[in-house]
Design goal:
This protein has 4 domains: about 30-85, no CATH class; about 85-155, Sandwich (Immunoglobulin-like), CATH 2.60.40.1120; about 180-190 and about 285-309, no CATH class; about 200-275. It has 7 helices and 10 strands. The strands form 3 sheets. Strands 3-2-5-6 form a 4-stranded antiparallel β-sheet, with no helix packed on it. A 3-stranded mixed β-sheet has the order 4-1-7, with no helix packed on it. The protein is about 45% helix and about 20% strand.
C-alpha cells in the first residue's frame, strides 16, 4: 500500500513538471506565419526598407519554421546585414567641441545620448538629422548609400554672427581750383600729300604692254602658220609628197605661236594683279595746328591736346 502511494506521488510530480515546462515555453510562429514573414521580408528588401525587412526575417528564422524557409531567411538576413548602411551622429559647437546635452532626432525619431558617436543602422536614402540646444537649432540632410558603413554626420550648433558695424567714410571738402594756365598754340606744318599713282601701277602698265606685244607676235606667227598649212595642202599635200623638213618647220611655227600667246596672257593677268594691289593711298587730313592745355585740379592736374585740321 505504501509502495503504491509512493509511485502515485512520483507520477503526479512528473506530470506537474511537464505542465509547468510546457506553460513556460513560448510557442514559435506557425507555418503560415513563417511563409508570410519570408514573403513580406523580401518585398520590404526590394523596396529598400532594410530595417523593416530585417524584422520580418527574424520571424521566419525561428526553429518552428520549415527548414527550407528558415535557411532562406537566415541567408537573406546576412545579405541585409551587409547592405544596411550605418551612420555616426555627432554634435559640435562653433569651435569644434562636442555637445552632449543637445536633443537630436533622425527623421523625427529622438536619439539618446548613448546613441551619439555610435554606428547606427539606417535604410539607404535621404534622411534628416536635427539638433536642438536652447535657442540654437540646426537641420542637416544626408544621403546614405546602400552598403556604406560608419558614415560620419556632424551637426554644428553655433550662434549667428552679428553683422559688422557700418563705418561712414569721412566727408572731405574739395579744395578751390586755381585758374587755368594760359598756353600758346603751337603751329605744325602740314605733311605733303602722298602720290596718287604709285610705282607698282607704273610697273603694271609696262607689264601690260609686254603682254600685248607678246600676243601680237603670237598672232602674227599663228597667221603665218595657217598660211603655210594652206600652201602645203594646195601643193605637195595633194600628192602626199611633202618633205619632212617642211612639215617640221610648220610645226615649229605652231609651237611658237602658242608660246607667245600663253606668255602674253600671263603678262596681262600679272599686270591686272599689280594694278589692283597697287591702289593709291588715301589722302589723310593733315594737322595744321596743335594746342596743348594743362591746368591744375584737385589732387592732380588736367591735360588736353587740341588741334585744327
Amino acid at each position: 500500500m505504501r509502495t503504491s502511494a509512493t509511485r502515485l506521488s512520483a507520477t503526479l510530480a512528473v506530470a506537474a513538471l511537464g505542465v509547468v515546462t510546457g506553460a513556460s515555453a513560448a510557442p514559435g510562429p506557425s507555418q503560415k506565419e513563417c511563409l508570410v514573414a519570408a514573403e513580406r521580408g523580401q518585398q520590404l528588401r526590394n523596396a529598400g526598407k532594410l530595417m523593416s525587412a530585417r524584422a520580418e526575417l527574424m520571424v521566419c528564422q525561428s526553429a518552428s519554421c520549415p527548414g527550407i524557409v528558415r535557411d532562406d531567411c537566415i541567408k537573406w538576413l546576412g545579405e541585409i546585414q551587409d547592405a544596411t548602411p550605418t551612420v555616426i551622429v555627432t554634435v559640435k559647437d562653433g569651435v569644434g567641441s562636442d555637445i552632449l546635452d543637445a536633443k537630436v532626432t533622425v527623421d523625427g525619431k529622438p536619439l539618446t545620448t548613448e546613441m551619439l558617436g555610435r554606428a547606427m543602422p539606417l535604410d539607404p536614402g535621404a534622411h534628416v538629422v536635427r539638433a536642438t540646444r536652447g535657442d540654437l537649432e540646426r537641420e542637416t540632410q544626408v544621403l546614405v548609400t546602400q552598403g556604406s558603413k560608419q558614415r560620419l554626420v556632424e551637426v554644428v550648433l553655433e550662434s549667428p554672427k552679428e553683422p559688422a558695424a557700418k563705418v561712414d567714410a569721412p566727408v572731405t571738402t574739395p579744395a578751390a581750383l586755381p585758374p587755368p594756365a594760359v598756353v600758346t598754340p603751337v603751329r605744325i606744318a602740314p605733311l605733303p600729300p602722298p602720290p596718287m599713282f604709285g610705282t607698282q601701277r607704273y610697273v603694271s602698265v609696262g607689264v601690260a604692254g609686254a603682254g600685248v606685244l607678246s600676243l601680237v607676235v603670237g598672232a602674227a606667227i599663228g597667221a603665218g602658220y595657217n598660211s603655210s598649212v594652206a600652201y602645203l595642202r594646195e601643193g605637195c599635200g595633194r600628192t602626199t609628197s611633202c618633205a619632212q623638213s617642211e612639215v617640221d618647220a610648220i610645226a615649229g611655227e605652231k609651237t611658237a605661236a602658242y608660246v607667245f600667246a600663253g606668255l602674253g596672257g600671263a603678262l596681262l593677268v600679272t599686270s591686272a594683279v599689280l594694278f589692283v594691289t597697287g591702289a593709291p593711298q588715301r589722302r589723310e587730313r593733315s594737322i595744321t595746328s596743335l594746342v596743348p592745355t594743362i591746368a591744375p585740379v584737385a589732387g592732380g592736374a588736367f591735360g588736353a591736346l587740341g588741334g585744327s585740321f
